[in-house]
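Hey, can you fold this?
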Amino acid sequence: MRRIVILAAKIMIKGALLYFALRETNFAALSGRINLASAGWLSVSVAIAVLQVGVSAVRWHLISGDCGASLSVGRAMRYNIIGSFFNQTLPSSMGGDAVRMWLLAGDGAGWRSATYSVFLDRAIGLMALAVFILVSLPWSLNLIDNAEGRLGLAVLDLVAVVASLVFLLVHRRPFEFLTRIWVVRHLRACSLIVGRVLFNRRRGPVIAAISVLIHVLAVVIAWCAARAINAPADFVELLLLIPPVTLIAVIPISIAGWGLREASMGLAFSFAGLGASEGVNVSLLFGAVYFTVGVAGGLVWALQADRAAKVHAPAGVPD
């Protein structure tokens, strides 16, 4: 009953967010701006989204070894693209993470190693996003001409940076008295691993660079979507606006970030003087790109399930 209530609440929140974000959207006008050139830009953005899944697989592969899970890049790619399907169907932008844990655990890694590797993969990505926003903050504040918008952005990134620092330091001895709490005990273990991963002289810089690249690829996808409808936003503006929107869309109060992302993108574009409706239009195309990749992930999952069923099917008895 509790799960049903939470799911219903998230569906209601998503519906409300979509309503407020899309209530002034002219879908006929938006579809009228889609032409052959637009299809080309959107095709490029889908290809880049698939590349992003592959780059994310490399990062997960590099992290998994420290968590005690043996994971090849190929399997990580397959699990990631299947996860992208469930990101579009489960009631959270992180729904695919649970599926990735399940797939990796079922492949012999065990639940602890699988959970740690997926959690750290997500955590390192969010930490890199927080640092990315922090470094670009002077230019972002200069772009946003709304005082409330500048304050909101600064507070958002401050919370993300502080949370990242707490996570990095939670394994230190001053927090040892909290290890009686089950969640804190596992957080400490993950904190210890993430420190070992990020401060490794050989792999740490590679993982950091990959994490930044993943967020830059998201900006490129948004830029392609903007070019598809000739939205008045250049690459540098999107480089400053998309990361905060991505951070907000991670909040698990809607399905696949729909509604929350559109509302945030419209607000961000409005604060930057680019037009709220254009932000919503770009966000819709941005979401459609990831939805397309999710459909491909669903096909991969269906084929994998079909192969598993054939392998475990009982042999026929000859006449």
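Oh, and this one too while you're at it.
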Amino acid sequence: MLFRQTLAPWVALLRWNKPSGRLILLIPAGWSLWLTPDAPPSLALVFMIVLGGLAVSGAGCIANDLWDRRIDRNVERTKLRPLAQGSLSVAQAVVALIVLLIISLGVVLNLPDSVRDLCFLLACLALPPILIYPSAKRWFAYPQAVLALCWGFAVLIPWAAQTGDLNGGWPLAGCWVATLLWTFSFDTVYAMADRPDDTLMALKSSALTLGPSVLRVVSVTYALSMLALAVAAASAGVGLIFWPFWIVVASGMQRATRALKSVRQQPMSLYGVHFSHQVLLGALLFLGLVLGRLG
């Protein structure tokens, strides 16, 4: 019991008590790996990408909580986070952040020589937006776009690790654009839950900036993201079995957005449900890509 109580704040700090947020970063990495001309990837590379993705995702959560520990105390959704309520100290969080960044670096350095330099460069380029993103809500009207840029590296790094270059043409470009638009969309919906608190604290989000048109914009960006992924899949020669999955997911995203429009007083939990649905839809697309490439 004591061990569980000791471990609980660390689990919450890394958001491993909410696995949806960890899985959703790995989904675009899976899309990327299975759209490369060398697909399917080796199990060793898949393991390295999963390990690196979990480490980077955890580091991003800690960086976010370090930036926002004083703000989080005043936000209903985040007031029980470990740094906000003081169950972990800033020093402990900084040590954990450094450990996770070292693990991420170790993953890159253990990649084959032929791809290591490019992946290391991309990892270095990814680090500034990952660490800056938590502050974006203080100075940028669309902080969700910064998160989308961070998510884009979950496409570029796996592609580089598999192929050794970024000369991926339409498959790579389409997957990258799809990931940016998809991330912007679901995180904008997620930010809708914090609109009252963000307004009181003069914080920014795309949910606030877009105002009454927010769900219309999200509907369009979801549609564009699926169009971009369709271009990627078609250009990569993915088999016919992928397309029923794509139709189900593309229509599912629109249905999920319309469901939000139909509720006048949305409870906070509704946005979390939408986010969880995106994890399932993204995973369904990944399954379609796997079957399409194997077929």
